[in-house]
Hints:
Layout: E1 2-6, E2 13-22, E3 31-36, E4 43-45, H1 74-89, H2 93-102, H3 118-124, E5 133-137, H4 144-152, E6 156-161, E7 168-170, E8 173-177, E9 187-193, H5 202-212, E10 213-224, H6 229-234, E11 248-249, H7 252-261, E12 264-271, H8 276-285, H9 307-322, E13 328-335
Parallel strand pairs: 5-6, 5-9, 6-8, 9-10
Antiparallel strand pairs: 1-2, 2-3, 3-4, 4-11, 7-8, 10-13, 12-13
This protein binds zinc ion.
Amino acid sequence: MNHLSTCRICGVQNNHKVYDVREMMFGTREVFRYFQCTACGCLQIKEIPDALGRFYPPDYYSLNLKPERGIHSTLYRKLQKQRCRTALFGEGFKLNSLLKKHVELPEALFERAAGISTGEVLRKSGIKDFSARFVDVGCGAHSNWLMHLSALGFYNLIGVDPFIKADIQRGNIRIYKGELGNVHGQFDLITLNHSLEHMPQQLEILQEIRARLSKAGICLVRIPVVSSYVWEKYGVNWVELDAPRHLYLHSLDSIIYVAQRAGLVLKEVVYDSLPLEFYGSEQYLRDIPLNDPDSLWVNPDSNIFTAQEKASFATLSTKVNVERCGGRAGFYFQADSST
Ligand SMILES: [Zn+2]
């Protein structure tokens, strides 16, 4: 079915193909209409609901994540930071050879709070020292990404999220209830970990990011991607569609287009699909919401899938990442110096 609509990303008016998508995280099964732009490929909700807050109840997952806790002594943590400094910035080489024998690198360096490992993000972003300034946009109440950075020794750590109850101070992490526009300063790494797709004004937020990047600053945008195997396979049952919270499911073309308009140029794309992409979509095909007590998301021991099926979800998520056709990816942008 097609309908006359205007794309909110590229402005093309056409008879774009429409899709009716059910709310399936909580399983209300309320139907929301989406359309996919024939020009840029962006899949988007036709009407942005007025009161978006009602779709983020207190049990929405990112408002409820528990902070991770360390188990090591203060001295051990100090030594770990020294090892980490060497691993990240190449400092203190001689000391490090001794430390290597007795102190392991912090797990936070390898954690995948940001899908991609923290160490990999830091290296790709060219972070040079512990004074680097970070902001995590749309981070929820407990940004594990910021927690990992704090554990590694970084201290200029800010988060913003409009849906948390109030401002939060946790160690050297400050999370503000609000938007990027509500905090001051320039940043060396701006992260949007699955938050851009929730924001009504795509161009405006990317322009704000462009204005807030330091000279060599990087923005990492992690989003679901509609130009993917999972969208082709599952269509409206694709778990990442997450109606109506995901207002935009970008194609590669549409995210690059809107970022360019905002003065950002693409450096690199990294695919970071998880097994969830497959088991969640299989569940929606079987009419099982993500938050259902039998859901694999809620109960990892759930027997709605065989062991063989569970293994296949992991295999498939790895395969689509390698073949660069997964349903989620991270886009590294930097400021376009010519704008
Ligand atoms: Zn378009």
